[in-house]
Design goal:
The protein is of the alpha+beta class and 708 residues long. It has 5 domains: 4-78; 88-193, OB fold (Dihydrolipoamide Acetyltransferase, E2P), CATH 2.40.50; 212-384 and 409-491, no CATH class; 505-542; 548-704, no CATH class. 50% of the residues lie in helices and 14% in strands. Strands 1-2-3-5-4 form a 5-stranded mixed beta barrel. Strand 12, helix 20 (630-639) and strand 13 form a beta-alpha-beta unit. Helix 1 (4-25) packs parallel to helix 12 (338-351) and helix 15 (438-463) packs antiparallel against helix 16 (470-491). It is globular, with a radius of gyration of 28 Å.
């Protein structure tokens, strides 16, 4: 990395990301004016110093860190929208922005035009958007206006500390409530007036839904047909859980997210097609810059693909990068560099700083950053060999074909390996899953995907308006069916289904630094990359999951038994239990095997008592009480080590660690780590509480203000 400008752009995005992380990691919300004002001041000084030529790398990094915090604070203030403040029943009218599949039916995202309900639940005003689950037999069209009676709740907080946080996501999408309908919604004629942006979004959503329906009519097999709609218009509603799980185990789940590969194949295919068409006239091709014309056309095609595919975070990043590539063609410069990756990341984080915590952004950015770094290193190595006279003879025709095939195969293996490592770290952190045989799955499936699936997809979209998309969709569907068979074969190689204990955040960060450093550093400096990789691996191996998990309601509990096995008070299928098992690196299919035994949990009319042990199990248990009456709660306060109750015990003199109704409203779900302590007088170690983590910060940040 000899280019200092390149270093500066990379440092800029790392500095911006650090500043964003600092703001969101604060224990409480700062004044909405402090960070933006500070960012404006520091940025002004930085620009002045830059113009004077006196802004060093350290100063530039400070500027971007402060600007990151300022942008995150400003974004939090701008998107602040009314939320439902309590559970209640409402009459809601609005237009349908999105329809997705849920476990029990359909999930509808409504832009609210009118809402009627109790005043105590609408203290902040009417929410802009609500998400409602409706019966699966409901006929709901994107873009239509509906009226529905529903039970709505404030957006839910994380089921486990550090886990998936719908309340955080909903805040930045201005979703003020979620809930379920009491019956089928009614379509309302005569839509209410909307702003231009809302009307454009409504029309675009309708176009996407229409394209999805037309594409699905050409398909024959449900699984492959669902993938056709997902790849071309971003509609993943028809993909079964089994299909998604198989692709994930085979390391092919990345084909579901429309990202760099899809955009490159789609826009690159459009570029190649336009070049061939323009080259049909030799005279025109000799006189005019056909590559620039083709780049403009491909940029238009990429923009249309961005719009019809749903414009996810990964798609936006890919679009910015492909746009930089085509702009590079227009001005005669190479566009796919680490600089372009950094610029794309900067643009996304400036527009929406919360993207930093989105798994899709992290996986997409990590993979592309590492891939581009690897191929730039190979390009430099090749350039160095050519300058030193390493290539003296040209290969013969047969040898040239073999060389081309071997390079293509080597590139595929290298790409799969690097991308798999980069996304594997992020996937393990967020989902507790890796793909041990992902390299095999990608080697088997990606050639078909690249050479058949996406080119046929481009052709299908081009011919769809003329009603001629049947053939390309059929070929695309057949190729996807073959990829699914290969994915099933690969998934069956892994009996453990890729479940791992998620690494701590610091471990995941160090592992990524080690991987990226190994790719981007040169010479002996590359050895330095082993240090963060080693530290990250050691932290991961030495980390243990929580010994006790408490649900946000306080009604459910999980704790280790004397053998160190994680067991639950309720083994019903559900998101909460799935998240708890994910923290243990366990599959949800083992849920039925994990109920608490009678010697660990004892119950009577007054409540329950649970014995919780540290991970090694070599200690006296921690006594956890779950009283059902006020009198039992008062007694347990002096007998137990930990008391969890639905009563408000703020006036009680409780010597135990207490999580009553008011405390849980502040903390949300809770994770507890235990430790064993031994004294000289004790024959067996005593169990104590080592660390407690809350799902919500105290006092609550804006996105957790009313979260349940």
């Amino acid at each position: 990395m000899g280019n200092p400008g390149l270093n500066r752009v990379l440092w800029a995005i790392f500095g911006l990301a650090a500043g964003i992380w600092i703001y969101f990691a604060l224990p409480q919300e700062p004044s909405p004016y402090v960070f933006p004002a500070l960012a404006l001041l520091v940025a002004s000084i930085g620009i002045w110093k830059h113009l004077k030529g006196r802004l060093g790398l350290t100063g530039m990094l400070v500027v971007w860190v402060v600007c990151g915090s300022g942008l995150a604070s400003l974004r939090t203030t701008i998107v602040d929208a009314p939320r439902v403040t309590a559970r209640a029943s409402f009459e809601v009218t609005g237009w349908v922005a999105d329809v997705s599949r849920s476990a029990r039916g359909k999930r509808v995202l409504l832009h609210v035009t009118a809402i009627n309900g109790p005043a105590y639940a609408l203290k902040q005003g009417n929410p802009e958007r609500v998400r409602i689950s409706v019966p699966k037999e409901s006929t709901v069209r994107v873009g239509s206006t509906i009226s529905v009676r529903a039970r709505l709740f404030p957006p839910a907080g994380p089921a486990v500390p550090g886990g998936y946080d719908f309340s955080f996501i909903a805040y930045f999408q201005k979703i003020g409530a979620s809930g379920f309908a009491f019956g089928k919604p009614d379509e309302v004629s005569g839509a209410a007036s909307r702003g231009r942006v809302s009307e454009f979004m409504r029309v675009l959503a309708g176009v996407r839904a229409s394209l999805s329906e037309r594409l699905l009519k050409f398909t024959q097999t449900p699984d492959a047909g669902a993938l056709v709609a997902a790849l071309l218009v971003g509609n993943r509603d028809h993909i079964s859980d089994e299909t998604e799980d198989v692709l994930r185990q085979a390391g092919l789940a990345h084909i579901l997210a429309i990202s760099g590969l899809h955009m490159a194949l789609f826009a690159g295919g459009a570029f190649s097609l336009l070049v061939m068409l323009l080259a049909l006239s030799p005279r025109f091709a000799l006189i005019q810059p056909i590559h620039q014309f083709a780049a403009l056309g491909a940029l238009v095609a990429a923009t249309l693909y961005l719009l019809i595919s749903g414009a996810s975070v990964a798609t936006q990043r890919s679009f910015i990068m492909i746009a930089l590539v085509f702009l590079g063609i227009l001005i005669g410069r190479r566009g796919l560099t680490l600089r372009s990756v950094a610029i794309a990341g900067l643009a996304l984080l400036i527009m929406a700083p919360e993207n930093l915590f989105h798994p899709g952004f992290q996986m997409s950015f990590a993979a592309v950053l590492c891939l581009v770094a690897a191929y730039e290193a190979l390009r430099e190595r090749k350039s160095g060999k050519e300058k030193s006279g390493g290539r003296l003879t040209a290969p013969g025709p047969n040898r040239g074909v073999l060389t081309l095939i071997s390079k293509w195969a080597g590139g595929l293996i290298l790409t799969s390996l690097i991308a798999g490592l980069a996304t594997g770290v992020v996937g393990a952190y967020h989902f507790g899953r890796i793909a041990p045989y992902g390299l095999v799955g990608n080697i088997l499936g990606m050639p078909i995907f690249s050479l058949v699936t996406m080119p046929m997809g481009l052709l299908a979209l081009l011919l769809l308006p003329f009603g001629l998309a049947s053939f390309p969709v059929t070929v695309m569907e057949a190729s996807l069916s073959l990829i699914l068979e290969m994915a099933r074969f690969t998934a069956n190689l892994d009996a453990g289904r890729g479940h791992v204990v998620p690494p701590p955040a610091a471990s995941a960060f160090l592992l990524f630094c080690g991987l990226f450093g190994g790719l981007v550093l040169r010479g002996r400096l590359r050895i330095a990359a082993f240090l963060p990789a080693f530290l990250g691996s050691a932290l991961w191996l030495l980390s243990n999951g929580p010994d006790i998990q408490i649900s946000a309601t306080g009604l459910h509990l999980a704790a280790r038994d004397a053998d160190g096995v994680f067991r639950l008070t309720s083994t019903r299928q559900g998101f909460r239990n799935e998240m708890w098992l994910q923290r243990e690196g366990m599959d949800v299919s083992t849920l039925s095997e994990l109920p608490m035994a009678d010697d660990q949990k004892r119950c009577d009319d007054e409540g329950c008592v649970v014995h919780a042990f540290p991970v090694n199990g070599l200690a006296n248990p921690l006594i956890v009480a779950l009283p059902r009456t006020v009198s039992a709660a008062i007694q347990d306060c002096s007998r137990a080590d930990l008391v969890i109750t639905d009563f408000d015990m703020s006036g009680a003199n409780c010597t135990a660690q207490l999580f009553d109704r008011s405390k849980r409203a502040q903390t949300g779900a809770v994770s507890i780590w235990l430790s064993s302590m031994r004294t000289d007088e004790e024959m067996q170690a005593r169990t104590g509480i080592e660390r407690i983590e809350n799902a919500k910060s105290i006092p609550a940040r804006p996105w957790h203000q009313w979260a349940e």
